[in-house]
Write a structure and sequence with these properties.
Order of helices and strands: HEHEEEEHHEEEEEEEE
Radius of gyration: 25 Å
CATH class of the largest domain: Alpha Beta
Oligomer: single chain
CATH topology of the largest domain: Nuclear Transport Factor 2, Chain: A
Number of helices: 4
Number of domains: 2
Structural class: alpha+beta
CATH architecture of the largest domain: Roll
Largest sheet: 5 strands, antiparallel
Distance between the termini: 60 Å
Number of strands: 13
Length: about 350
């Protein structure tokens, strides 16, 4: 009889530890699980789709993942991912797979994103995205390349002058449309030889380059044609010399934008959807409803920045609607025991973060 009671207790204890969902309502798969990676790649595609400035991002590492059940159907992947900046501008139509990752010696930039991705009928769609990005430290760059120049403020007078001089040189050689400066994307001040390296985006206007007398009267074309330029302005005794190359992208026709879908957040939208970052104590998972939240639009980037911070591409949410309509703030994450791991066996080792695909900053 004692053996039977002991066996029953052990069975109950095993059942408690092996339940992957439980009252908390989420599970934690491996960060390198194929479906987790699919959700992360869908998030990166979403981020790049709505980027209008800076450079396309590529997935580098999946840091955390929780999978929530969504009522009445589907699952929501709550992810934290790291991205790296590529050399393709955000407006460049080149497929991401063909874009090179910017290396440490070029002063790499890392993105840090929190995203919620809905999986429904085997398809992934992004419900929420919030990112920021940071250039690599000067110390790390110096370890790899002691003499490599670092990123310079985009509003530095030397940088602005180099971009304007390079664009003027390009327009002087151009037999077609007159191009206007859209943005200065990145810049570096090179000590030897003394020069300024700059990358910038341009857009075609309704003026002919050879005939422009007043650039202020030129207007951007209805069917946008963008370009991306790289230039170096060398300072020499008695003057300066500029070398510039520009790649012009195909004309992009005007597309009537559809109304924002209830499950997709756009950079301009003030209504987004989200799932909870974590459940507060005592809140049953079944009572959660993914509801619209009104959020403030992101502020514009500071003028002294050295790169386009991803935090200005997406806005976040502060709370989530419960079934009763009462908003609550996400609480501290609860510990979830993985299947087959006894609670008294020591610290729980998560199968996260996942593998590094390129390099760690």
């Amino acid at each position: 009889m004692k053996s039977f009671i002991l066996l029953l207790c052990l069975a109950q204890l095993w059942g408690c530890h092996s339940a992957p969902h439980g009252p908390l309502g989420y599970r934690e798969p491996n960060c390198d699980d194929p479906e987790t990676e699919q959700a992360a790649l869908a998030a990166v595609d979403h981020i790049n789709q709505f980027l209008l400035q800076g450079y396309k991002q590529i997935l580098n590492q999946i840091d955390k993942v929780k999978v929530w059940s969504r009522r009445p159907v589907g699952e929501v992947y709550e992810l934290e991912i790291d991205t790296l900046e590529t050399t393709c501008h955000a407006l460049d139509p080149t497929p991401l797979a063909n874009c090179s990752v910017r290396q440490v010696a070029q002063h790499a930039v890392e993105g840090d994103c929190k995203v919620h991705v809905l999986k429904l009928d085997g398809k992934f769609s992004v419900m929420f995205a919030k990112c920021d990005s940071t250039p690599d430290s000067a110390e790390d760059v110096r370890k790899v390349c002691p003499n490599c120049p670092l990123l310079a403020p985009l509003n530095d007078t030397r940088v602005v002058h180099a971009a304007e001089a390079a664009l003027a040189a390009f327009n002087a050689q151009n037999n077609g449309s007159y191009y206007q400066l859209l943005e200065i994307s990145r810049a570096q001040l090179v000590p030897l030889p003394v020069s300024t390296y700059v990358e910038f985006a341009v857009a075609a206007t309704d003026c002919v380059a050879k005939e422009v007398t007043d650039p202020a009267k030129c207007n951007l074309l209805a069917e946008k044609q963008y370009g991306f330029c790289k230039a170096t302005l060398n300072e020499k005794v008695g003057g300066e010399e500029v070398a510039v190359t520009c790649t012009l992208f195909q004309t992009q026709p005007v597309v009537i934008q559809p109304q924002p879908d209830a499950n997709v957040a756009t950079p301009d939208a003030v209504v987004e959807q989200a799932t909870p970052a974590s459940l507060p104590a005592g809140q049953p998972a079944a009572s959660l409803v993914v509801g619209p939240m009104v959020v403030s639009p992101p502020r514009g980037p500071p003028s002294h920045r050295v790169h386009y911070d991803l935090r200005y591409a997406f806005s976040g949410v502060d709370s989530v609607e419960s079934a009763s309509g009462e908003a609550f703030h996400p609480g501290k994450p609860h510990k979830v025991t993985q299947p087959g791991v006894a609670g008294a066996a020591g610290p729980l080792v998560r199968p996260c973060p996942g593998r590094i695909r390129h390099f760690k900053i």
